[in-house]
Design brief:
By secondary structure, this protein is mostly helical. The chain has a domain at about 30-85. The chain is about 75% helix and about 0% strand. The protein has helices spanning about 1-15, 20-50, 60-70, 80-100. Helix 2 crosses helix 4 (about 80-100). It is elongated.
Length: about 100
Amino acid sequence: KTHTKRKAEFEEQNVRKKQRPLTASLQCNSTAQTEKVSVIQDFVKMCLEANIPLEKADHPAVRAFLSRHVKNGGSIPKSDQLRRAYLPDGYENENQLLNSQDC
């Protein structure tokens, strides 16, 4: 009885310890990457709409607040990268939105 019980426990542990397939790992990473980009774009949009300079994102108090209270808030880059990488995207999106509203 003890042998069969321990054998069942051993097999159950081996089932739980199997490695995830590569596709599942890549899918998990791509989901996290998508969420990260979404948080950064929303942050830039919020700063632009509230007329907050992007340099304020570099302040230590803002950094501490974002990483403590915002999911993926620690992944928001410094202001120069926000300006170079994400501000042009926000500008293009807003420009397209304004053009579509004019029609």
